[in-house]
Design a protein that fits this description.
β20 and β21 form a beta hairpin. About 20% of the residues lie in helices and about 30% in strands. Among the domains are: about 170 residues, Jelly Rolls, CATH 2.60.120; about 90 residues, Immunoglobulins (Immunoglobulin-like). It starts with 10 loop residues before the first strand and ends in a 13-residue tail after the last helix. By secondary structure, it is an alpha/beta fold. Strands 23-24-25-26-27-28-29-30 form an eight-stranded parallel β-barrel, surrounded by five helices. The chain is built from eight helices and 30 strands. The structure holds beta-D-glucopyranuronic acid (BDP). The site of beta-D-glucopyranuronic acid (BDP) has 10 residues, from loops.
Amino acid sequence: MLKPRSTPTRELVNLDGVWRFAIDSRVGDRPWTALLDTPLEAAVPASYNDLFVDAEIRDHVGWVYYQRSVRVPRGWANERILLRFDAATHAAKVYVNDDLVGEHIGGYTPFDIDLTDTISAGEEFRLTVAVSGDLTNETIPPGKIEVGMDGRKKQVYFHDFYNYAGLARSVWLHSEPLSRVTDVTVVTGFEGATGSVDYRVETDGTGEVAVRLSDAAGVVVAQGSGPRGTLEVADVTLWKPGAAYLYELTVELHDAGSVVDSYPVAVGVRTVEVRGHEFLINGQPFYFTGFGKHEDTAVRGKGHDNAFLVHDFQLLEWAGANSFRTSHYPYAEEVLDFADRHGIVVIDETAAVGLNMGVVGGMSGTPPFPTFSEQYAGAATQAAHAQHIRELITRDKNHPSVVMWCIANEPASNEEGALEYFTPLVELARELDPTRPLTYALVMFATFQNDKIVDLFDVVSMNRYYGWYITPGDLTTAEQYLQGDIQGWVDRTGKPIIMSEYGADTQPGVHSVWDQPWTEEYQASFLEMYHRVFDRFPQFVGEQVWNFADFATSNGIHRVEGNKKGVFTRDRKPKAAAWALRKRWRGLEGRKPGSDGE
Ligand code: BDP
């Protein structure tokens, strides 16, 4: 699905702002049929939970309503008119005036609703969006709604980050021509100094496809026609980590001598490949440095914010990080566009977090009932997961920054049924994108002895917490465990390995000369110990610290004002570990620490 863009043939109107807002229990039936009777207004984009000082709203289970009026530009009489939600977390029903016009399930992928037959150019209409943050065993991520002793519904979920909900990304009204480009897929390569751009264009209506590729200065370097083909780029400038270079592919639809549609796609020419135990970008071994992140800031929750986008990337650069993982869900498209332009490498993760009953069993990892069963992650969950993978790959396939798909975080890959659950999903991901490696982030309980699915994947991504949840405060024992664990995966798989999570909760301002958990010194020594171990393994191809910044978590006793494993605080101030990482990472330029890149 193409992102709405302003082009010579397409227009867009941004609908962000302040919308009327109410939770379902405070309005009557069919509230979309009239002006919402509410004193509240909510910011869009933003999660609604932290906007109001009202616990009933914050932890609401069920639908909430957003409403505003929208006027269709009067020049759109002969255009297709679409409404685009960059995300509605986790499900949406959209009403134009009194009627339901569309629905979507999945909180982190976009959807369009075609209003061409519903409204006319120049007309004003009432737009109401019902959004639900509910998680069940038919959603990704999964969850469970329990009813308390007082009859109140309570959302239970199996991941620690707070379940923010609402319209956290932009909303658009946009026009497309009646005959139009509906999809573009680009795959790049190079041989010596000559680059190649394979393109495939899908269209609707009549017309002939013409494409041209321009360099960053706007000079046309290659042209083609027809819905598919390969463009050759002489003296190609590659897209490289830390040195982004983007061409622009202009895709046009020509009919009766005129351009009826025009759509630009940013193209970075680069290759990605796993060979033996190496992860290659442009044929060169690449070493990931960086973080698992969250979309999380005060008040906005998961609301996309361009100021934080820019600042977070500045901090990545400051720390010498070359990459991050979109833990634990697809991020706003603006984030990937930015990564494309700034040469930051992305591991793009689905929202499949918490497919693991073992976490409910505490440190024992013993599930109360099997994860991969109809009681929890059954056929409906798997179908939702497949649909989510389809939507993610369709959205992000053309981003040069995205070098790998991570199709789940910490699934119970040690349990019976994991192989049956994941095999069709891996096949689907490979069919949708044969070019990028696949991974999943391994939970602690899934060991090199009991994991059942690693053979399906290209890269081993380990989440490990020795020195935190296991042997807290004892980094000597932790180091031995870690060494043995990595050695086991090396021996079993021969595949490239990255540490996709390792970290220690840290309260800024707490200090000690001892190995004392929660101190700034402990976080730094913890990371230093891990790095010492990583550097002993040539098979190790990357390190992403958990987490970039502190973030909000679900209510409960396990966290003190959220997860504090951030190397930066929630308002992005560095803890001591940030300086230590900067020292290790700066100047590496994608090479493994201690290696010369050969
Ligand atoms: C891992 C999860 C991550 C958590 C982290 C932690 O993947 O989402 O935030 O542990 O406990 O299990 O800090």
